[in-house]
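hey can u check if this looks right to u? its 562 residues, i copy pasted from the old doc so theres a chance i mangled smth
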Amino acid sequence: MTARVDAVLGDPFAPRSFSLIAIHKHGLRHEFRQEAIDEAHRVSQQKLGEREDLTHLPIVAIDPADARDHDDAIWAAPDDDDDNKGGWKAIVAIADVSFYVRPGSELDREARARGNSVYFPDRVVPMLPEELSADICSLKEGQVRAAMACHMKIAKDGSLKSWRFTRAKICIAANIAYEDAQAAIDAAGEARGDVSSPTCSMPDVEGAVPAELVRTALQPLWGAWRALLAARNKREPLELDIPERRVMLDEKGRIASIAPRDRLEAHRLVEDFMIAANVAAARALEAKRAPVMYRVHEAPGREKLVALKDYLATFDLEFALGQVIKPATFNRIIERLGDASGRAEIMEQLLRTQMQARYGPERLGHFGLALATYAHFTSPIRRYADLLVHRALVSAYRLGEGGLPPEDAEHFERTGEQISMLERRAMEAERETIDRYVAAFLADQVGQLVECRITGVQPFGFFATVEDLGGDGLVLAQTLGQEYFRYDEAARQLIGDETGEIYRVGQRLTLRLAEANPVSGSLRFELPEGSYGGPRTRPERRDRVRGRRGRPLNIRHDSRRR
């Protein structure tokens, strides 16, 4: 057996090596061919040509403070048209990547092979060369940029009355961090003023949003969003509050902190404007009888619903299989839980019950968003699917060069499968890298006690994650003591034969961190000394759950329960 050295990554325990491990493990294309770099430089010099001029509008880009690229911006104002009294006019402006990345070009071949950008705490592996992704296609404050503009009329009730698409030039009035936008709108309170449109200008106060921009840009956006929010609440999309981990690094690439990301109104505002534009793009292409690369999210299959029913029964929660399953069905379960201790684990189980979203040319709807039609339009810098939708719009609306070739449309099904696979690969690489950072963060705490929550149970043991931090670790069943533990698959728990001791998903307990491996991203836990499972004292029985209302649980093997 022979092997060839592909690359030397250096010290595997160095922080900046964690993403390199994922890049090479998953075969991510992290370097561009010189031909693609040269082409990016050449096309970036193109003149914008004839476009709708929107540079006079106070369009703003609201993004994370650490955003690597800025491909979307938004604007809104009250609509004075007689047919839309009380409604809003809105524009979602997206970087016009199709103007620079033409079908069949070297850039296009590179973008198709990558499928999407991949984001790590210390770097990004972009879908497009940096001169495009971080510069000429990135919507930056005070810079005139090429955009694809989605013009929408939003009714008073939040429904979309009409839409149109143009190629435009815009001048971003400000790049605003979510936290700054939220702070500014909170400080403004409910004050409303004139929403006349100023010329594009840069904020005059560093680190804050000028009062003029709050009045002319943010307050109208929040007004239009309240209408979109009412429509969202009416259709009742899936509402799962699953926190996302944010890894913050210092200047040397070392971990400064790991914490859940805050979820602000500003996040939801941008999200709902993007959803509206995505819906408008899909409907516009359907109306033109043009090809659509849909974002498909199908309803859960019966097998997953049966497993969910069995699981919820262990919490004394009923779930009828004969009902029509809608996102609101799952929301009602969460509402019935209130602030019960099992809320977090049940939401995770509801998430596992969902089908994985994918791309394809068939109109199958988006179950999670409770939408009949949906296509990704808002991130062509980092998603090839969005670039295809832009090209389809260019062709359908006859907006010039860079449209969708007929032969590309014919292969949408195969392309959808490919970019869906590449998206799953990227998500796995990102998740693994975060796990490595978490393991590195905990490496100097080996031997210490940490507060954990059980996230998964298997016949061989259970997995637990460190509270408020993340990172899954294994506790082997053989370390739990001398008695035999039976595995109840439906309830997802291990039950001791002699004592009835239970380890179940969602249970909170204190564990000793036995191992933290930054290279693999794995953790291993043990019961602390004095806990049940060896020549130790009997455990505190707070975790001997007998059902949510004290009803004894069936401790037979799951095969007889189902």
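The domain at 446-561 is CATH 2.40.50.140 (OB fold (Dihydrolipoamide Acetyltransferase, E2P)).
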